[in-house]
Amino acid sequence: MTTARPLSPTDRSTIRRGGRRARTDRAELHAVLDAGLIGHLGVLLGGGPVVLPTGYGRRGETLYLHGSTGAASLRAASEGLPVCFTVTHLDGIVYARSAFHHSVNYRCAVVHGTARLVTDDDERLLGLETLTEHLAPGSWSATRLPDRKELAATVVLALDLTEASVKVRTGPPGDDERDLRSAPGREQVWAGVLPLRTLVGEPEPCPLLPADVPVPARVRERRVSSGV
Known about the structure:
Largest sheet: 10 strands, antiparallel
Number of helices: 7
CATH architecture of the largest domain: Roll
Structural class: alpha+beta
CATH topology of the largest domain: Pnp Oxidase, Chain A
Number of domains: 2
Strand content: 25-35%
Order of helices and strands: EHEEEHEEEHHHEEHEH
Radius of gyration: 21 Å
Shape: globular
Helix content: 10-25%
């Protein structure tokens, strides 16, 4: 469903370089985020930029992030400093007729904002449920929930999706006209796209699991939803 709210409401989230690849439908932002499992959180730490891989989950217009209370990056993000969160999918390697026009097909979402430290007990559980269900659907209700000690050791952050952008490249190489013309006696250079996909393998049981415990439907269905 498309919403009237634009994706680029601020100067820093407006795509200028390669603007034709920008997407303005907020549903495309949701799709890029929902299709990923790991994002990269950028913060200023100790006077310099730090970018670290981070798990996440989306509920409506909010991203939930989490980690250890000992993580300096999350502590910095919770102190009201600006952050940037990105999710990128690499869909193909683009082979061109010239080295200059080699590229990649991709989908990328970038979110700017200030992360909010979640302190309300109910929202903390909601955030952790969102993260768990994004990674492994069905697991929140099927496993033991976090106890008080585990919750005390966990930071949960909320990042609003208001200030975000999406950029997508698809299709063949954009070669120059001069490279499209075949020179007499010169071998044609192959051009096209080598698709890239993430494959989900067969479930591997924990060595401590009794042999008669079957793979649950939530794991089997995860493989199906991933296209395997």
